[in-house]
Amino acid sequence: MLTIKNLHARVEQKNILNNLNLAIKPGEVHAIMGPNGAGKSTLGYVLSGREGYEVLDGQVDFQGQDLLEMETEDRARHGLFLAFQYPVEIPGVSNMEFMKESVNAMRQHRGEEPLTAAEFLKKAKEACKQVQLPLDFLKRGVNEGFSGGEKKRNEIMQMILLEPTLCILDESDSGLDVDALQVVANGVNSQRDGKRSFIVITHYQRLLDYIEPDFVHILANGKVVKSGDASLAKQIEQEGYAFLGLDTSEEASA
Amino acid sequence: MSAWLQQVIERGQGIDDWLSPARARALDALSNTSWPTRCTESWKYTSLTALEQLDLTAESAEQPSTVEPIPGVDGLDLVFKNGVLQTDLAQLNLPAGLQITSVQTTSAVQQVIATTLFSQIKPKHHLFGLVNDALAGDVLFIDIEQNSHIGQPIRIISLSTGGHESHHRVLVRLGNQAKATLIEQALGQQNSLSTGFTECDLGEQAELEHYRLAMHTGEAIYFGGCHFCLHHHANLNSTLIGYGSQLSRTDIDIIHNGEHAKAKLNAVYLLGESEHFDLHSTIEHAKPNGTTEENVRGIVGDKANAVFNGRIHIHRDAQKTLAELNNRNLLLSRRGQINTKPELEIYADDVQCAHGATVAEIEEEALYYLMSRGISRSKALVMLNYGFIQELINQMPNQQLAQWLEPQLRARFKEMEVR
Amino acid sequence: MTEQIQEALSRKYEAGFVSDIESETFAAGLDEDVIRRISAMKNEPEWMLEWRLRAYHNWLGMEEPDWAHVRYPKIDYQAISYYSSPKSMKDKPKSLDEVDPELLRVYEKLGIPLYEQEMLAGVAVDVVFDSVSVVTTFREKLKEAGVIFCPISEAIQEYPELVKKYLGTVVPRSDNYFAALNSAVFTDGSFVYIPKGVRCPMELSTYFRINEQNTGQFERTLIIADEGSYVSYLEGCTAPQRDENQLHAAVVELVAMDDAQIKYSTVQNWYPGDENGKGGIYNFVTKRGLCHTNAKISWTQVETGSAVTWKYPSCILKGDNSVGEFYSVALTRGHQQADTGTKMIHLGKNTKSTIISKGISAGQSNNSYRGLVHMGPKADGARNFTECDSLLIGDRCGAHTFPYIESRNPTAKVEHEATTSKVSDDQLFLCKQRGLDAEKAVSMIVNGFCKEVFKELPMEFAVEAGKLLEISLEGSVG
């Protein structure tokens, strides 16, 4: 599904990713952990094509296509979804309008007829219920005045509606209480169908109690320094990153 | 004295009707007015060259003058074409408490009332307001009796077509506790000159829901104004939509002439191509305990030029006034320009007044967010642009009107050149 | 409470005394001959006289501006004397010891003990008494650093190339009515040159004071900070009490070359006129700085004096990444009128400006902020933030805000906010309940209101500004 080879990238003249390699097959869940500043969020932005994130070297193959050659919206239409750590607020543009536009862009890409307003509303309501957001959230401006937890749930709702093939969850657990965490995890798990793949970026093992990963990768200084199975996350929870010989002072001070 | 102004005065002197005494005052003022230049503060960013060079003799195809109804808005339509009232007032089926007359049909009693409105609410310093005083042909007088609640929106359409100069005037009186909705729509796109001024007197506790759609585009030169006088506890809710033409200017004055009056003014302007739109608003708080909330948002693309001057004036004894003005602008193009000046002039200490103005572009972060969900850049821009003004459109009390406007507004963004 | 305030408000102007110094003054009137005489008195080279005369002719063709929110009787420019020099200054003093002791006492009364400043604050003071620079301290020490700090009349003699190169480049001769007049008749002022890479070892300071009756003061200041240099310049102004209005039309030009920084601070306390609005200084000043690449100019002003103020210290942000700042406190009381603010002209890429303006109006005064933020077509990524707050004390005064925003660049961002408030009864009650009197409470509240600006002033100046505000405000609660 996704093969990242020798990826180097920088932001504002600062090299963040240095020779990052990663391969993800359909249906797999990969967790990415690592100290602050390791490049975890940068990976998500580079893969989704955010402006200002400059790829210096390397290839990314996404379902047989050169991902780095595509525009942000084309990557999305090809099935790449990023759940943002800090979703932006867009006053004036309603969630409903935004999602309908977005869902139909995907459908059009797949050669399907756009959904009618009624069809879309039905789907949106279901998704809304699934992430336990009140229906009036559909009418409100995109993320406008949402709490941190509501924003995260809104991201998951979008994921459910857009039916992507690869989902990147950027710290979708941060700032959530246990109940909200469960809602997010259930949303994600409902989308696990053996074909869809996930990259779960997180600081904490606790999310991985709900979303069980097939692989855990430790990212440090812009590359994968250790990979393993779910037990690696548990080891980090107990021992920190120190056993990997990483300097975690930055995290301690953060 | 400009040649243009000179001929206005000469033509004005030739009009003889019961408004003549008022017209004479305007002519007198005009002959003492110097022609605005870029050094004239209220015309600093708007050049009158297009008017000076106006040639109305050029042939142009006659435009159809049919007026589309607004779906869901069962309006009482009054149509001016090139300043001439097309609607037969006698044929109108008016609800009780509402009288509509024109200058020719106004009864002696109504003339007395109309004289207390004509050029009495509109401040004397509006140059083209004075021109309108002098030259307005069909003057419409809408009189709403006290305690009358007129549910049906009164819609006044003024069309200007190629090769014409026109001046129309509307006077509105709402008696105490009266309620009404007024939709004013001005449009035209061919080579023409029109002025349209409206004066509204809101009696005690009267409520007016008002819309001004300044939709002149292209070659049509337009000077318009809306002037409101609010008495004790009166309530005005006004929305202005502005397009731009080669030269389009609107002046709004809201005068709090009684205590506890409330005014809300939302304005939106969307300009593309080489359009020019100039909005000057003045809120006069002459009495205590008044409230004003003004929100103005503009989007400028292509080579367009937006001018906004928003003045709030709190008079010496207008204590406990609450007044706020917020102006936000998006500049989309390198060749466009935005000139904005919110002004506060305050002579009372126990008031809460604030204004804010911003000029920016669409946030890259929002654009990226939309694109990361598969929406194309151009579509995302239209969505974000519309979103920027949608907050104000959503506040329009008449949502049928808002829905009718929406596709038209969105279409304007589609045609705009970005950066 | 109101009575206390009125009582305190009627307090006399502290700097209002006339010193009895013999002086040489031109008869009133302005023509080419007067300009030639000024130039001759100063032993100026021919090019300087030519420059003055051209400015004079520019001025003759101009009209006095009337757009400011101020009212004053028409000025008779022929009734003003354009040159006044203390007689005892004919033989210039070489050091403070040679300065007329009467003069020194004047400064002492003003609270500017030169010796003390010299010793304690390490401030170099270029004192302008009416029109002639009296003495310049610390010249030697500055010379070591390569810094030139001298009266501009002297700079015209000794550094003609520098003066010729920069004079009138930021504020052209014909920039505006008052600048043109100044260019024609300026008598003295300060000249500063900071060489490349030099951080000026001390804060430079000039005190201006108008003494002679009916003399206009037209000082001219030119500060050049060469590449990578830094200078902080302080300007303080006082004027004695006079019945007739005195005209003050100064010009200040700042040039900040690449990577240079200039910090210019003013405390202005000219005579504001009496309680009936009689007398007082007309302060019509043009101050402007030009920033080259990565340069920064910061204007800080505390304006409490003058009957009429017309002043807009501005920045032309020509170089990429250059920064302009304007921090202002303007206090008006009695019948004072102030129309002051700034212009930030963004021409270069990624230029940034910040405007913080605090207006305090009391009595029957009118206080206006007038500002322009211009984003030019090439000012990609430029940013401005403006905050204008007004505080009204009493219900007979006015507070006004006139910000002009002009944007020609879609990537530029401008943000302007303005608010108006008063010293609330609740605030006063709280302070009084805690044992403070009304005066102290108001001064505390006003000082808090101005904090953002005061923190930009150099330490000694901030203390002085705070005191000045306290004196000006005493009791102004309504």
How is this structure best described in words?
The complex is a heterotrimer of chains A (254), B (419) and C (478). Chain A is an alpha/beta fold and 254 residues long. Chain A has a domain at 2-88 and 165-253: 3-Layer(aba) Sandwich (Rossmann fold). In chain A, 37% of the residues lie in helices and 28% in strands. Chain A contains nine helices and twelve strands. The longest helix of chain A has 15 residues, at 95-109. Mean pLDDT of chain A is 88; it is low at 249-254. By secondary structure, chain B is an alpha/beta fold. Chain B has one domain. In chain B, a hairpin with a 2-residue loop joins strand 1 and strand 2 (84-85). In chain B, helix 1 (3-13) packs antiparallel against helix 2, helix 2 runs antiparallel to helix 5 and helix 7 runs antiparallel to helix 8. The two termini of chain B are 41 Å apart. Chain C is α/β, with parallel strands linked by helices. Chain C is 25% helix and 34% strand. Chain C is built from twelve helices and 24 strands. Chain C has helices at 2-9, 32-41, 46-60, 101-109, 114-121, 139-145, 152-158, 160-166, 177-185, 425-433, 438-454, 459-473; strands spanning 23-25, 84-86, 124-129, 132-136, 148-151, 190-194, 204-209, 220-225, 230-238, 246-248, 251-256, 261-269, 281-291, 296-303, 308-311, 314-317, 323-332, 337-340, 343-346, 352-362, 366-375, 383-393, 398-407, 413-422. Chain C has a ten-stranded mixed sheet with strand order 4-3-7-9-12-14-17-20-22-24, with helices on one face. In chain C, helix 2 (32-41) runs antiparallel to helix 3 and helix 7 crosses helix 8. The interface between B and C is large, with 35 and 37 residues. Strand 19 (352-360) of chain B pairs antiparallel with strand 24 of chain C.
